[in-house]
Structure formats: C-alpha cells, structure tokens
Amino acid sequence: MTKIFLSLLLPLLIAFPQTFPAAGANPTFLKSVKLNPLKLRTEKLSHFKFYWHDIISGSNPTVVNIVRPPPNNKTSASGFGMVNMIDDPLTEKPEIGSKLLGRAQGFYGVASQEEVGLLMAMNFVFSTGKYNGSTLTVLGNNPVFHKVREMPVIGGSGLFRFARGYVQASTHDFDLKTGDACVEYNVYVLHY
Ligand SMILES: *[C@@H]1O[C@H](CO)[C@@H](O)[C@H](O)[C@H]1NC(C)=O
Ligand SMILES: *[C@@H]1O[C@H](CO)[C@@H](O)[C@H](O)[C@H]1NC(C)=O
Question: What GO cellular component term, any one, is given (predicted)?
Fold first, then answer.
C-alpha cells in the first residue's frame, strides 16, 4: 500500500508541488516572500551589555507612576497592582553620565502578590551607531530581589528584525531611600 502510494503520489508531488498545500485557502492576501533574495544571510547571535537607570528622585525622573493600587492589607506587602511608565536611559557603563546607547521605553507593574515580581513590557530603543533607530522588545517576569532575572526578547525592528533571545538582569545599585535603581542588562539575541 505504501509502495503504491509512493510510486503514484510522489512523482505527482514532485511535478506539481504548488497544487497541494493549503487546499481551499485564498492566496490573494497571503504570499510567501523570499527573505533577502539578493543576499544569503545567516542568523547571528549578538551579546549586548548595558546599564538601565530607573530614576525616581530629582528634578528629571525617568519613571512615572500611572496606577497606584488601592490600599489593602493583602496587597500592600508586594505593591501588587502598581504600574509605572518608564523612559529609562541605557548607558554603556554604570555611571549615568557614561555613553548613552538608547532608552528603555515601556512600563512595568507588580504582577505578583507574593513578592515584588514585575511584569516588564519595554522596548530598547537604540540611538547609537548602526543600531540607531533599531529596537528590541522585552516582555517578561522580573522578581527584582532575585540576583539574576531572565526575561524573553520577543522581537525587534530595524537591524533586529526577527530577533529572539533573552536578557539577564542583575541589580547593580538600588537606593532604598529614593527607589532609584541601576540594573545591568546582558542581552543575547539571534537576528539577521
Ligand atoms: C490591616 O487591617 C487591619 C484590620 O482591618 C488593621 O487593623 C491594620 O492596621 C491593617 N494593617 C495595615 C498594615 O494596613
Ligand atoms: C540617529 O538617528 C536620528 C534620526 O535619523 C538622527 O537624528 C541622529 O543624529 C542619529 N544619531 C546618531 C548618534 O547617529
């Protein structure tokens, strides 16, 4: 039976491959396109390291609180429900005055009732060198008091089209009094 199938159908599949997939689908709105038709490119892995500054204090804060959770005994310990919008500088070195590479724009919120576990949703918007204007998008869970927090890189734009990967975040400095934080980000992305 298999032999008959192969001997009859295989030549047909080879001769008319386009007639078999997606029977009934209307192809007018959907086309497969060749990726880089002129250049054969391979996916590469890049590693970036920079420092993310969440500045709450002073006259130029980079964070604004947009949702304050209702006061409630059960949720007050972790701050569950709180949401902040950020436009945080990303610098080459831990010092805020070091070379600016881009900004982390987006928001984070406390999504855990047990600990300060953030849901981070942010774009790294790069503004230097060949990556100027390109972005990476991070969406993940950030339990801020853990030593290393890993979050997925779910996409990108510009030079980072089709990006996927992960970041590892570790706190470099955290000022308990002001809430200002400097976090080291190690970013590993596959892209073209
Ligand atoms: C929690 O609720 C109890 C009873 O409603 C109240 O007496 C207590 O002060 C509250 N604790 C906090 C930290 O708000
Ligand atoms: C980045 O791109 C913007 C807009 O195209 C341009 O104004 C700016 O000078 C560029 N910055 C660098 C450092 O290349």
Answer: apoplast
User: Is 3 inside a domain boundary?
Assistant: no
Residue 95 lies in a domain: yes
Please tell me if the CB atom of residue 65 comes closer than 6 angstroms to any atom of ligand 2.
Answer: no
- Is the Cβ atom of 73 under 6 angstroms away from ligand 1? yes
In a domain, 35, yes or no: no
* pTM tops 0.85, yes or no: no
Q: From the CA of 129, which ligand is nearest? A: 2
Instruction: Classify residue 190 by burial, with Cβ atoms within 10 Å: 0-12, 13-18, 19+.
Output: middle
Q: How many domains does the chain have?
A: 1
Q: Is residue 31 part of a domain?
A: no
Q: What is the pLDDT of residues 131-148, one digit of tens each?
A: 999 999 999 999 999 999
Q: Could you give the CA distance from residue 187 to residue 57 in angstroms, rounded to a whole number?
A: 27
State the distance from the centre of ligand 2 to the C-alpha of 154, rounded, in angstroms. 25
For the chain, give the mean pLDDT: 87
Q: What stretches in the chain show pLDDT beneath 70?
A: 1-27, 35-40, 73-76
The residue segments making up the domain with residue 134 are 41-191
